[in-house]
Task: structure prediction
Amino acid sequence: MKIIKINESQKNRLFEAYREGFSFETLSILGGDAFSDWRDWKKQYDYCVKWLGEPDGFGSSRCVFTLSDNVILKLAMGGYRNAGVEQNRLEYEMYNTYKSPLLARVYDADENFTYLVCENVVPATETDFEKILG
Result:
């Protein structure tokens, strides 16, 4: 099998083409700016459901949509949207600061952190940590 490495921007364009009409730019616009009403998340949510299907999971302030086998989109949502935005911001900043194999790889985020595109990971076991850390 041949492995081709691509950068995050190329990966984003592939996701958009794969979804035949889904656009991260549109998703960002629908979220409004940093001062928008918290209800703008519903526009983003409806857009994601239209193009990506129903979410695969919900947390306290974010929902998760699958983009591919190993990539997900985390959307800040609901009345606790500010908490979801902060979770996305922190996840983005932690990954970009440390680039640790212990963290999910982050591929993209909205400038207001209303959504985050990252690696889909499963819960790690003690054995997993031993393998990663040697």
